[in-house]
Amino acid sequence: MTAFIHPTTTLNNGVTMPVLGLGVFQVEEGQELVQAVKTAIRQGYRSIDTAAIYGNEASVGQGIREALQEGGLSREDLFVTSKVWNADLGYESTLAAYEASLAKLGLEYLDLYLIHWPVAGKYKEAWRALETLYKEGRVRAIGVSNFQIHHLEDILRDAEVKPMVNQVEFHPRLTQQELLKFCCEQGIQLEAWSPLMQGGLLEDPVLKEIAAKHGVSVAQVILRWDLQQGVVTIPKSTKAHRIAENADLFGFELTAGEMERISGLNKNQRIGPTRTTSTSNPPC
């Protein structure tokens, strides 16, 4: 097994969270996903991010269990995230959804549980449920996903527990600097989903030029750009060489000028929507 990917960030409740994790959106249940999770853990990943709506929690859990059975690690060494989907937002239904996710994963607790989308009229009751889970010690940290500033302000007005994480679409074509600044000021950790824009940035000439200068891939440049802004990142891959490459981010550093050039690629361009009221067909 390779060395642990050491860098972590400390959430506002004192829990440490790896700055790099494996995302599994659009990876179906089955042996490919089981193997990807095991490969990531062997490569030093300690964070795995899934969601109820992805329909793959059982395979994620199997991969985790098999990796732990190989020895050298305990459950406490891993940071596992899942999310409650729109159809289950509400107090009792969110509590039930959490139990369902635990059962599918085969785990006794989650390290992080998120509200997947800020569905109007539903997310505040769901947040009360997350607060209950947190206060009861059932989950180590709680947060939200796809929340913009006005959603966060709404939560913060009544919250007894401040969100610890906000996971949003974040990449060089969608830099969300106002949201990043707000989260930083509030002590809410920003986390990037689809940091590589589902591969849509890999041929960008600016990124290719910077990658060539450092002798790394475009993906590594983008992920390094995330980390240097203090943004947690969870690239997705099921290919062993990509999983390894995406983790190899700590032997180079982008200059201030390179960071500015990458941020200058912003077009406020999304691959997902700004909001959803659907209970099916997940966008992320």
UniProtKB/TrEMBL annotation:
Organism placement in taxonomy: Bacteria, Bacillati, Bacillota, Bacilli, Bacillales
Molecular function via GO: oxidoreductase activity
Domain NADP-dependent oxidoreductase positions: 20-266
Biased composition (Polar residues): 265-284
CDD domains named in the record: AKR_AKR5G1-3
Keyword Cell cycle belongs to the record: no
Native organism: Paenibacillus mucilaginosus 3016
Keyword Zinc in annotation: no
Site residues, Lowers pKa of active site Tyr: 83
Keyword line: Oxidoreductase
Binding site for substrate: 116
Gene3D superfamilies per record: NADP-dependent oxidoreductase domain
Annotated PROSITE patterns: ALDOKETO_REDUCTASE_1 (PS00798), ALDOKETO_REDUCTASE_2 (PS00062), ALDOKETO_REDUCTASE_3 (PS00063)
Entry protein name: YtbE
Similarity remark: Belongs to the aldo/keto reductase family.
Chain positions covered by the region annotation Disordered: 264-284
Active site: 54 (proton donor)
